[in-house]
Design goal:
It is built from 17 helices and 40 strands. The longest helix has 22 residues. It has 675 residues and is of the alpha+beta class.
């Protein structure tokens, strides 16, 4: 076994590899860019080596820098994680020449499967079902349009050297092919240094199903069942689970056999993933093979009991697989949610900044339910523009799929992240979605169920009352503390927090009556019915704690609570309410307060996120139509098209390509509308 392992990666995957290596008695070396100098993986590793500036192209993607760090530290093996150099055959070959172990497949297998065009040809030769498409190199947008017409719309445009949703577009018309071809090539060039793309038929109502394979250097290859990865946005996986609620035992065996056959055909000898697309008829087609560890590997680990990173290390050291296919069993169900630094309320735009608060739920096993967190951040850490927006992966396991989902709901509610925008509310909403819980999934799930974007979940009446009651409990506790602090009591609030109050949420006002008896606060709703409904709230919550945990009417709630300027803000399961508490007389005057009208900002095209301006397709004097593409901004390795909000004429362009932009920086200005 290896004595010292260098992890050629960063963030959560570097931390996850370090944990297994530490358990196996292997010392670890981290590498870091200037942006990651204070990263958690640097802190966790036994040694750390600086390798360059923040951009990945000047640090994590430089094989020479990694090999130099190996020589400097005396490491005898390298684990590439995923992304970066993990699927570069040239990197594996360079390590091989240096006599350094590579914790991944042999370079021949990487080369065979790393090229998405060639891999489809090899899969077809191995008897694996493939999607109809054109696998040759496409010269320009005109040729792409001609090919798309021959295949038939809709089509998928994909980067040949791609992965992780980068360099991928769906097109249903000639215009979409032309735009998608250029965008896919641009993302592929910036992410992989290879702008080749290919086109294939897009399967309607598709599911994304993948098979985890493991092979050793002695000819043994097994599969560890499937993962369902259909919940995606912009082809980036958001939620994964194992096993799939749609795959039968017979289909699992057939998919597994094809995945193993393909792996055997290329002499595969590590962990890898064979990805398939599946239609409503359960027919499946090969998409690609990822010759590396997958982001979503934890769900497979939880249902099979195998540590895939450990298996990779053992195989790379020359050991035989210690088990055969007959010893692989699927137990229970696991779900993984990817926590991203993005704003779901603003079309999932990337969010950067400091994690002023990062409080995950407790890990471990309780009552047959497992909570696991793979993270590469800590409170006070920085989320930068240079890398993927993933903050952490939250994974739960239970005896059934619904048990795992319900446990995930509880874990998401108990998770608290502040300082940046994040997708926790969206994930919590999906977990509660009837279609998701029924397992009726497809890669179009998010687009179909949230066609107008995400605006938050609207709580049902009973849940809303529970949130009012929790806010009332918090109000009582904070009022009690305020009575002990000079100057903290508002003149219009009597010394006690009990009695009648009006809770205002937007334009809704609800009367409540609060009774405080020691550890319990009772909240009555006189207007709810003839006999006022009452909710008893019990909790050990204290002022300053970011998450309320307690019983409301006999049910357990985890609710994020903040003190707002005029009251409290509570967040639960994707629902968010701003609540103000006022005495009836004060609340009656609120109806006379003027409404604040938002300023008209349509005169400017502003940058909605921190990023680099890739291009501006407008000039002064140009007339444009609403929805027309005006600029492209790259943030967190994704290209984002910015469009005009209205018809108009461009008055002035304020920013040039290559500019580093902050949120709300003006890119261009429109002339004032006449008349």
């Amino acid at each position: 076994m290896f004595a010292k392992l260098l992890i050629a990666n960063r963030g959560e995957i570097a931390c996850r590899i370090i944990r297994t290596a530490r358990r196996m008695g292997i010392s670890t070396v981290a590498v870091f860019s200037e942006a990651d100098r204070d990263g958690l993986h640097v802190e966790m590793a036994d040694e750390a080596v600086a390798i360059g500036p923040p951009p990945a192209a000047q640090s994590y993607l430089l094989a020479d820098k990694i090999i130099e760090a190996v020589r400097k530290t005396g490491a005898d093996a390298v684990h590439p994680g995923f992304g970066f150099l993990s699927e570069k055959a040239s990197f594996a070959e360079a390590l091989e020449r240096e006599g350094i172990g590579f914790v991944g497949p042999n370079p021949r297998a990487i080369a065979a499967m790393g090229d998405k065009i060639e891999s489809k040809k090899l899969a077809s030769e191995a008897g694996v079902s493939t999607v109809p498409g054109y696998l040759g190199v496409i010269a320009d947008a005109g040729e792409a349009v001609a090919i798309a017409r021959d295949i038939g719309y809709p089509v998928m445009i994909k980067a040949s050297a791609g992965g992780g949703g980068k360099g991928m577009r769906i097109a249903a018309s000639e215009a979409e092919v032309r735009e998608g071809f250029e965008r896919a090539r641009g993302e592929a060039r910036s992410s992989f240094g290879d702008d080749r793309v290919f086109i294939e038929k897009f399967i309607v109502e598709p599911r994304h199903i993948e098979i985890q394979v493991l092979g050793d250097k002695h000819g043994s290859i097994v599969h560890l069942g499937e993962r369902e990865c259909s919940i995606q946005r912009r082809h980036q996986k958001v939620i994964e689970e194992a096993p799939s609620p749609f795959v039968t035992e017979e289909v699992r065996a057939a998919m597994g056999a094809e995945a193993v056959a393909l792996a055997r055909a290329v002499g595969y000898d590590s962990a890898g993933t064979v990805e398939f697309i599946m239609g409503p008829d359960r027919r499946f087609y090969f998409l690609e093979m990822n010759t590396r560890l997958q982001v979503e590997h934890p769900v497979t680990e939880l249902v099979t009991g195998f540590d895939i990173v450990e298996q990779m290390l053992r195989v790379a050291a020359g050991e035989k697989l210690a088990f055969g296919q007959d010893e692989v069993a699927i137990k229970g169900s696991a779900v993984e949610c990817r926590l991203y630094a993005e704003d779901p309320y603003r079309n999932f735009l990337p969010s950067t900044g400091r994690l002023t608060r990062y409080r995950p739920p407790a890990e471990g096993v309780r009552d047959g339910l497992t909570t696991r967190i793979d993270a590469g951040v800590a409170e006070g850490g920085e989320i930068s523009i240079y890398y993927d927006p993933m903050i952490a992966k939250l994974v739960t396991h239970g005896p059934t799929r619904i048990a795992a989902i319900d446990h995930m709901i509880e874990a998401l509610d108990a998770f608290r992240i502040d300082g940046i925008r994040h997708n926790l509310p969206f994930l919590a909403t999906v977990m509660r979605h009837e279609r998701f819980r029924e397992g009726r999934l497809s890669t179009g799930f998010i687009a179909e169920e949230f066609p107008e974007g995400f605006s938050g979940r609207v709580p049902a009446a009973a849940e809303r009352q529970a949130l009012y009651a929790i806010a009332a409990f918090v109000h009582v506790r904070l009022s009690k503390r305020a009575r002990n602090i000079s100057g903290q009591i508002r003149p219009d609030h009597p010394p006690t927090s009990e009695g009648r109050w009006i809770v205002t949420s937007g334009r809704t006002q609800v009367e409540v009556e609060i009774t405080n008896s020691g550890e319990k606060v009772t909240v009555a709703f006189p207007g709810a019915s003839r006999n006022a409904k009452k909710l008893a709230v019990t909790s050990a919550w204290k002022p300053g704690e970011p998450v309320f945990k307690g019983e409301v009417g006999g049910e357990t709630y985890h609710v994020a609570v903040d003190i707002a300027q005029s009251g409290y803000r509570v967040r639960h399961g994707g629902a968010e309410l701003a609540l103000a508490f006022d005495r009836p007389g004060v609340a009656a005057l609120l109806a006379f307060m003027p409404e604040k009208v938002a300023a008209d900002t349509s005169k400017y095209l502003r940058c909605p996120m921190p990023g680099i301006l890739v291009s501006v397709s407008a000039h002064a004097g140009q007339e444009v139509k609403a929805g027309e593409a005006m600029a492209v901004v790259e943030a967190m390795k994704m290209e984002n098209i910015l469009r005009a909000e209205r018809d108009g004429t461009v008055a002035k362009v304020h920013a040039a390509p290559g500019a580093s932009l902050a949120v709300d920086d003006v890119i261009l200005e429109f002339a004032e509308a006449k008349g």
